[in-house]
Write a sequence for this structure.
């Protein structure tokens, strides 16, 4: 049992891919602000910083692209939940959403490949 989750559980696998995505983004110059921000409106996998911009990162994993792949799995409803959770984060930190530069990135992990989509939505 790693991280409090049964070995091989979906949650444990999700955390492994989030760590992979985090390391990938750190290697490209972003810095970590927070992992797994949760509020009643949803969860944000990673919150990173790129210069003066807060980057809200959704990490998705799919073994294959048979059913549209990882990027296609982020529905408009999921995007809306992420926007609401990001607004909650900004408010909880006393940041003004109209003054704080933000963007939403997607890290799509498919098999062993990582595809980083900045400004995904």
């Amino acid at each position: 049992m790693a991280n409090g989750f049964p070995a091989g559980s979906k949650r444990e696998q999700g955390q492994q891919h989030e760590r992979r995505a985090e390391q990938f983004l750190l290697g490209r110059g972003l810095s970590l602000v927070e992992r797994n921000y949760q509020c009643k409106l949803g969860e944000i996998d990673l919150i990173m910083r790129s210069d003066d911009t807060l980057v809200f990162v959704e990490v998705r994993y799919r073994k294959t692209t048979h059913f549209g792949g990882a990027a296609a799995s982020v529905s408009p409803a999921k995007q809306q939940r992420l926007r609401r959770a990001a607004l909650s984060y900004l408010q909880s930190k006393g940041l003004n959403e109209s003054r704080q530069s933000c963007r939403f990135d997607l890290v799509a992990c498919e098999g062993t490949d990582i595809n980083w989509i900045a400004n995904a939505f």
Remarks:
- The two ends are 35 Å apart (CA to CA).
